[in-house]
Amino acid sequence: MGLAGSVAAFLGLGSPGASWAWVCMAALLLGYLACALPLSLLDGAVAAVYVVFAEHPVPLAFHFPMVHHRFARIAEFALYDR
């Protein structure tokens, strides 16, 4: 999204002046925000699963046994790395 806006600004304005650079920066910022905002939601969901495992592992083991097993194995290996 940001790259496409930058190319369009460069081709559309075509002048050797620096005005197209501001449009490229704005397109880059908008592209970054368009990607960062949805990914922050995913990051929060993953953090919530970690908190559920830390505080209440039994219901997680009952409803999602594969996830619980993998988290237990990761926690087990983390103890051996110390």
**Number of β-strand runs:** 0
Distance between the termini: 44 Å
Rg is 23 Å
Beta-strand content bin = under 5%
Q: What summary fits the major beta sheet?
A: none
Oligomer: single chain
How many helical stretches?
Answer: 4
Summed over residues and divided by their number, the pLDDT gives a mean of 80
Principal-axes geometry comes out as rod-shaped
Low-confidence stretches: none
- How many structural domains are formed by the residues? 1
Helix percent band: over 70%
The SSE order reads HHHH
What structural class results from the helix and strand content?
mainly alpha
Structure description:
This protein has 82 residues and is mainly α. The protein has one domain (2-80). It contains 4 helices and no strands. The chain has helices at 2-13, 19-55, 57-63, 65-80. α3 packs across α4. The longest helix is centred in the middle third of the chain and has 37 residues, at 19-55. It is rod-shaped and about 60 Å long.
Q: Keywords for this structure?
A:
about 80 residues; mainly alpha; 4 helices; about 90% helix; rod-shaped
Could you outline the blueprint of secondary structure elements for this entry?
Blueprint: H1 2-13, H2 19-55, H3 57-63, H4 65-80
Brief summary:
The chain is mainly α and 82 residues long.
